[in-house]
Amino acid sequence: MPDYKGIQGTAVQNFAADPPAPVTGQVWYNSTTGQFKYQDTIPAGAWATGGSLNTARSQLAGAGTQTAALAFGGNDGSVTAVNESYNGTTWTELGDLNTARRGLAGTGTNTAALAFGGTTTIPAGPGMTGVNESWNGTTWTELGDLNTARQLLKNAGTNTAALAFGGETAAIIVGNTETWNGTSWTEVNDLTTVRTNLGGCGATNTAALAFGGQIPAGPTTTAATESWNGTSWTELNDLNTAREALAGAGINTAALAFGGLTTVNVANTETWNGTSWTEVNDLNLARKAMGSAGTNTSALGFGGGPPTQNATEEWNAPYSATETITLTT
Fold first, then answer.
1. 169 and 217 in contact (C-beta within 8 Å)?
2. Which of 56, 163, 203, 280 could form a disulfide with 310 if both were Cys (CB 3.0 to 4.6 A apart)?
């Protein structure tokens, strides 16, 4: 590399191990591995492995951020009430939900979350519930139930101003949408595309995004995307890959959709810019029915299956990575 010093102002340094905090563009020689390496930035983002859940499960719900998340409920072979908190490195078990359930929805933060809907049995039929619980960082408290008991619904907002949409009752797939004001749920305008097992996200109950899912005919997966403005849903551009049981993170103008089921589990990840979806780097592990938290540039995906997983992955965009230089002669 005869011109590197002239361009960068420094020589290529020799290290016995990769430096702990290299900067983008830095080049070094690892004398232990005998390799030249450099630090690169991937603008589109990438997934990295995080700390594993203590309880492997699917059909769980999540809340919070990538470094302060909450995972609750799910299917670990039976219906579970387990609740865990993530600090960016490890998961710690905390106080359980009052009502064990799977296929529930959740929103808020890891110290102020809301858990609603789901089913208390396997299979789902007789156990469909509208139970709603609020988390204060220590314990769960039961509050006013959903108007429509259902599972596999999605969510947006906070623990005092939430949105619940889609899902299925014991008999049918629904488009029901309800808003939460901290005390009670109110039915508002339905989704344009009735669906269950969908993806969704949103920071408030007046600005949400619904995408993917399963529609009644078929059964068939859909790529449909809709935006909620506090009054009604509007159809927008579809996902690139139609699927159900996918996860989501972010807001209605800057979202991330990942994982899910077509006819097989997929690892597909797509970013939303408020107008269209773009395919980016896949999850490391293809799976469906994950919990999720975070934003479109700093997301967390955890659990899922089958088989039931405890794996956690962290999405960062842009993503900094160490690359190896291949020398040719």
1. no
2. 56
